[in-house]
């Protein structure tokens, strides 16, 4: 594995000039999904034993891939499947793909509402996704928040459980009459599982704000407490949530809040009682994105071993719009001045972040510098104060996007991404920080 020295320097809020690495770096990608299938929206989790666990959305045979958007443009209907694969040898080989969803087309999942995976210390594999309640013949669909788990290393998964109650309302967007979606899931150090989703039950018409509901398992997914209302009528209804738990058991939840002045901005709330109640939300930036509509942009979180909270998000209120990063040194009460991840790019988006056990923070995203979107990354070795240069991942020619990232217990960092309709895996190269 090649080693590359990273110089550390500060990038100001609007992005001081940075020099992107002109030579891509990193080992060759490994194809995870089948060549004859259309795959997308991967997520990745690393077990304490170093196992690498991947899930992704399967959209059907590659030959059936549509050439463009559906007739009439955007649709809120999706009938996909959810697959899983696992490596126990640091990513050299993976198990054959296993379908997690039991009914073909059950998964309501795509890039902006992707399924999530986590592994607890005991090795239980937890999966959270959104499922279609009705079959394809229904005039209108209902979408539920669902959970499943595997206790045998991903060889089999339990029948999925619906975490939300059925609450049909007059809400109707033309295709959905009830939805519990755009959710997320995290596992705390004590094994408790925290699932959250955006809910339409308080909405009366399309364009209303969404509510945030959550459900908690205190026994590693054997059972779940009844759902709780977390925030009512305050969430941008189509921006996916993110959650993470710190070593001391605090649970952090991010959403794109809709404020009274019309801005829609990333915010973070903290729970000190295991997800029963949450603090007031803290904005991740003092800049306001004034947009009359849902931008479909999450704020993604991670936390390091010392309790620092790191956030990455897409900011549309600045030029050039793109990925920004901020850190909270006071457990989510306030956040630092944002740093632009890739100010030279025409557009940067879909950022993910991971904190390693050695304190390194790895930030990854896709961006358009030339003709196609490509995947880029950079690393901080001083808790997010400064970052090394923007570096392009070595991937085949074509479009590479929607990366997912996870740090292993031994300090290695792994990613999955979309590459021209397939899900690929790669281990990031080891890093040596330049001494100052």
Keywords:
30 strands; 0% helix; 8-stranded mixed β-sheet; 436 residues
One letter per element, helices H and strands E, the order comes to EEEEEEEEEEEEEEEEEEEEEEEEEEEEEE
How can the largest sheet be summarized?
8 strands, mixed
Contiguous low-pLDDT stretches (5 residues minimum) are: 1-26, 431-436
Tell me the CATH topology of the domain at 34-232: Neuraminidase
Distance between the termini: 25 Å
Helical stretch count? 0
Write up this protein.
With 436 residues, this protein is mostly beta strands. It has a domain at 34-232: Neuraminidase (6 Propeller). 0% of the residues lie in helices and 43% in strands. The chain contains no helices and 30 strands. The protein has strands spanning 4-6, 30-31, 37-46, 52-61, 81-87, 98-99, 116-119, 125-132, 141-150, 161-162, 176-187, 193-199, 210-217, 228-235, 242-245, 251-258, 264-271, 282-283, 299-303, 309-315, 322-328, 339-340, 347-355, 361-368, 373-380, 391-392, 400-407, 413-419, 422-427, 431-433. The strands form seven sheets. Strands 7, 8, 9, 10, 11, 12, 13 and 14 form an eight-stranded mixed β-sheet that branches. A four-stranded antiparallel β-sheet has the order 2-29-28-27, with no helix packed on it. The chain has a four-stranded antiparallel β-sheet with strand order 3-4-5-6, with no helix packed on it. A hairpin with a 5-residue loop joins strand 16 (251-258) and strand 17 (264-271). The protein starts with a strand and ends with a strand. The model is unreliable at 1-26 and 431-436 (pLDDT under 50).
Layout: helices, strands, pairs:
Elements: E1 4-6, E2 30-31, E3 37-46, E4 52-61, E5 81-87, E6 98-99, E7 116-119, E8 125-132, E9 141-150, E10 161-162, E11 176-187, E12 193-199, E13 210-217, E14 228-235, E15 242-245, E16 251-258, E17 264-271, E18 282-283, E19 299-303, E20 309-315, E21 322-328, E22 339-340, E23 347-355, E24 361-368, E25 373-380, E26 391-392, E27 400-407, E28 413-419, E29 422-427, E30 431-433
């Amino acid at each position: 594995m090649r080693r590359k020295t990273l110089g550390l320097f500060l990038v100001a809020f609007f992005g001081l000039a940075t020099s992107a690495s002109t030579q891509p770096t990193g080992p060759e990608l490994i194809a995870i999904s089948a060549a004859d299938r259309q795959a997308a929206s991967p997520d990745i989790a690393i077990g304490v034993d170093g196992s690498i666990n991947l899930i992704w959305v399967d959209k059907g045979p590659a030959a059936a891939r549509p050439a463009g958007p559906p007739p009439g443009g955007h649709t809120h209907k999706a009938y996909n499947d959810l697959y899983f694969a696992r490596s126990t040898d640091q990513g050299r080989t993976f198990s054959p793909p296993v379908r997690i969803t039991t009914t073909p087309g059950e998964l309501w999942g795509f890039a902006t509402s992707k399924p999530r995976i986590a592994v607890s210390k005991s090795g239980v594999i937890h999966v959270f996704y959104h499922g279609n309640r009705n079959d394809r013949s229904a005039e209108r669909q209902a979408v539920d928040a669902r959970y499943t788990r595997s206790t045998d290393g991903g060889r089999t998964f339990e029948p999925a459980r619906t975490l939300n109650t059925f609450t049909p309302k007059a809400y109707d967007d033309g295709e959905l009459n009830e939805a519990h979606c755009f959710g997320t899931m995290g596992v705390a150090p004590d094994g408790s599982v925290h699932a959250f989703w955006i809910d339409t039950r308080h909405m009366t018409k399309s364009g209303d704000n969404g509510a945030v509901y959550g459900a908690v398992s205190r026994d590693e997914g054997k059972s779940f407490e009844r759902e709780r209302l977390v925030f009512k009528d305050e969430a941008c209804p189509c921006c996916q949530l993110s959650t993470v738990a710190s070593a001391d058991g605090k649970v952090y939840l991010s959403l794109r809040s809709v404020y009274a002045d019309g801005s829609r901005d990333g915010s973070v709330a903290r729970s000190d009682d295991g997800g029963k109640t949450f603090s007031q939300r803290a904005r991740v930036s003092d800049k306001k994105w004034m947009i009359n509509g849902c931008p479909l942009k999450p704020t993604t979180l991670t936390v390091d071993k010392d309790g620092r909270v790191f956030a990455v998000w897409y900011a549309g209120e600045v030029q050039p719009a793109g990925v920004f990063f901020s850190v909270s040194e006071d457990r989510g009460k306030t956040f630092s001045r944002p740093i632009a991840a890739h100010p030279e790019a025409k557009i940067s988006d879909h950022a993910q972040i991971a904190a390693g056990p050695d304190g390194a923070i790895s930030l990854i995203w896709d961006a358009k510098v030339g003709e196609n979107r490509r995947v880029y990354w950079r690393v901080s070795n001083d808790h997010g104060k400064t970052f090394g240069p923007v570096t392009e991942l070595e991937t085949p020619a074509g479009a590479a996007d929607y990366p997912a990232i996870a740090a292993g217990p031994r300090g290695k960092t792994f990613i999955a991404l979309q590459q021209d309709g397939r899900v690929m895996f790669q281990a990031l190269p080891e890093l040596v920080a330049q001494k100052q």
